[in-house]
Design brief:
The protein is mainly alpha-helical. Helix 1 (7-14) packs antiparallel against helix 2. The chain has a domain at 7-45. It has helices at 7-14, 20-28, 41-45.
């Protein structure tokens, strides 16, 4: 999930408006908090599921 400052950049990338290199450059200029960009298959392969939970409503 991305905050309002990041979401437009991600949407533009996903719609093909510009390549990954441009999107990453734009995201690097923003102050990101609690957000991660896993931009390679190697990075994704390092993820490990540990648990799931449902927040109380």
């Amino acid at each position: 999930m991305a905050n309002d400052d990041v979401l437009p950049t991600i949407q533009a990338y996903l719609s093909g408006q510009f390549p990954a290199e441009i999107a990453l450059a734009m995201l690097k200029t923003r102050k990101l908090t609690d957000q991660y960009c896993l931009a390679s298959e190697k990075a994704l392969s390092m993820l490990r599921f540990t648990r799931a939970y449902s927040p109380k409503e």
